[in-house]
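Continuing the series of single-chain predictions for the mutant panel. This is the parent chain; the variants come on the following pages.
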Amino acid sequence: MGINGYEKAAIFLSAVGEETAAQILKGLDPEVIGKITSYMARMKKGDRVKIESVFVETLELVKSGDIQHLGGEEYVKKILTKGLGNEDAERILEMASKVSPLESLKWVNPKTLSSFLVTEHPQTIALILCLLESEQAAAIIETLPEHIRSDVALRVATTERIPESALEEIEEVLKVQLDMGKGSQGKAFHGTKVIAEILNHCDRTTEQKILGSIDGRDAKMADSIRELMLVFDDLEKVDDRGIQLILKEITTEDLTLALKTASDGLKQKIFKNMSQRAVQILKEEMETRGPVKVSDVEKAQQNIVKVARKLDEEGRIVIAGRGKEEFV
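Parent structure:
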C-alpha cells in the first residue's frame, strides 16, 4: 500500500535530524505542520525501505526541477549524508541515478503528461495509466478530451497483462529504456480494479460520465467496476465501529458539507455514532451555512471517502457487500 504525502514528509523529516527538520518546518503553513507532525508522532521504528524510497523520490523531484526552494541537488546530498551516513547516502544516490524514466513519469505534472499523451493511441494511454499511481492517473484522465476518456477507461478495465511487445511500444513512445530484462513475461494487471481506483480519485462528474459511457458499451464491465469502487453512499454499509473510526479522522468542515446531499439513511447512521451534543452542533452548522457549491460538497465527500478507503485497505473497517463478498 502506498503512503501519502504527509507521511512521506514525516519520514523525510524524521531521517534528516532535528536541526534540518526545524529549518524546513519553519517555512510551512501551521495546518500542514500539524498533519506532518501527527504522522511523525505515530511513527514506529524506521522502515529503511520506506526511508530510501522517500529520499530517492525527493532527489528525482529536485533533478526534474519540481523542487527548487530546498537549495537543489547538492542540498539533498548533504541532508542524505547527515541523516543516513556516507555509505547509505551514496547508495541512495546511485539508486536514484538508475531510476527508469518511466518511474520518473510518476513525478511529472499530470497536465503536462496529459498534453503529451493526448496525441497517442488510446491503448497506449491506457497502458501508461496502468503503470502510474491511481491518483496521478485520475488527474490525467480528468484532463483528457471527453471523447476518448471512456475508451481509455474501458481499455484499462480490460487489461489483464501488459505483454513484452506493448512494453516495448511504450518504451518507444516515451523514448526511454525500460529495465525489464530479457525473457520477461510482461506485467500482470487486474484492469477493473485499476480503473475503479482511478475513478475513485476522479471528480464525481468525470466518474459518472465515464461509467455511463462504459455502461453503454459493456454493461457487465461497468457493473464489475462499480462493485470495486467506493463512493460516499457506501458508507451506509459500514458498521458502527467503522463509522466511529472514520469520524475520528475527518474534519467537521468536511462532514458538514458532505452531509448536505447525503441520504437520510446515511445521515442517521452518522448521527447514531455521535454524541447528542455533537449532533446538535452539526445540525445547527448545516442549517446556518445556507446554500453551498455542489463542487464543494463533492470535494468534502471525496475527502471522507479517501479516509474510508485508507481504513478499508488497512483492514480497520469493513464495507459490507463490496466485491460480492459475504460476511458472517
